[in-house]
Amino acid sequence: MVLPEREERTFWIDGEVLRAQLREHRDAGVLAVRTPGTAARMPAWVDEPPVPLALLTAVVTAVHAAGGRVAVHCQTAEGSRNAVLAGADSLEHGMSLDPALLDRMAAQGTAFVPTPAVFGAGADAMRAREPSARRDLWLAGWDAMFGTVRAAHEAGVTVLAGTDSFPCGTVAGEASWLARAGLPADAALGAASWTARAWLGLPGLVDGAPADLVAYGSDPVADPAVLEHPDRIVLRGRVVR
Q1: Residues 65, 53: Cα–Cα separation, whole Å
Q2: Residue 137 lies in a domain
Q3: What's the rounded Cα separation, in Å, for the pair 147 and 140?
Q4: Mean pLDDT, 10 residues at a time, over the chain (241 residues)?
Q5: Which of 21, 127, 154, 210 is deepest in the core (most CB within 10 A)?
Q6: Domain count of the chain?
Q7: Which domain holds residue 53?
Q8: Which runs of consecutive H residues, i.e. helices, occur in the chain?
Q9: 92 φ, ψ to 5°?
Q10: Contact between residue 232 and residue 215 where contact means Cβ atoms under 8 Å apart
Q11: Predicted local distance difference test score (pLDDT) of residue 167
């Protein structure tokens, strides 16, 4: 958890330091705190255990007590399971997510941000690699992803479009991939717009709300590719394009 222009902590954070950090994020207006679901970054994660459930639950509890939300990034079945059982507010990536957890996610309001665009872009290259534990685990998660996305939507889970990968500003592409995964067109569009705003607690197009909108010359519900080419962008009442 790092605020802008701050160095990332490289030492162990105890409970009180964690709570102080969470309060600082809350006071800075941070809406959500990102935490990993595994103990290491890729590619080491294939051999690393997930963050223990008890620790992840403590993080979620502390963030909720500070008035924030927790987004957990997981690419293993056990990491995704722990995120859901800990009561995380959103599950990012969620590779190898057990479909048996979807009803619980829907009931407790855990959103699902599967990021299929970045995975889809690298699927062919990954498939061409020599067999390895990382390759096989990655491909198993990717091959199941479309079915999991559809099942999540059907179970009532809030499915959102988002990414943590470069280049930034690729949410439109994520929405298109959600449609390819089988989400209804309006749900895929909402995942990148009104549904996402509602989940974040931001108002839609209502009286008194910030004047935020993206306008198109044709209906992106009919053709998700239209999302890549907005005619007008207005942010807080200022015309950006």
Answers
A1: 18
A2: yes
A3: 12
A4: 49 57 66 53 56 86 85 88 94 94 98 94 94 89 96 98 79 93 95 94 89 92 88 93 87
A5: 21
A6: 1
A7: 15-159
A8: 15-27, 53-65, 77-85, 102-108, 116-127, 133-155, 171-181, 185-191, 194-199
A9: -95, 140
A10: yes
A11: 72
* pLDDT for residue 118: 86
The per-residue pLDDT for 133 is: 84
Q: Is residue 151 part of a domain?
A: yes
Asked, for residue 19, whether it belongs to a domain, the answer is: yes
Cα dihedral sign for 82, 84, 85, 87? positive
CA-to-CA separations, 99 to 42, 96, 103, 144, 147, in angstroms, rounded: 24, 9, 8, 10, 9
Is the link from the previous residue into 230 a cis peptide, with omega within 30 of 0?
no
Which tokens hold the place of 29?
């207006």
CATH of the domain at 64: 3.20.20.140
Q: Is residue 74 part of a domain?
A: yes
Separation CA 25–CA 139 (nearest Å)? 36
Q: What is the pTM of this model?
A: 0.84
Q: What is the pLDDT of residue 1?
A: 45
What's the confidence (pLDDT) of residue 164? 81
Measuring CA to CA, which residue among 191, 164, 166 is closest to residue 177?
191
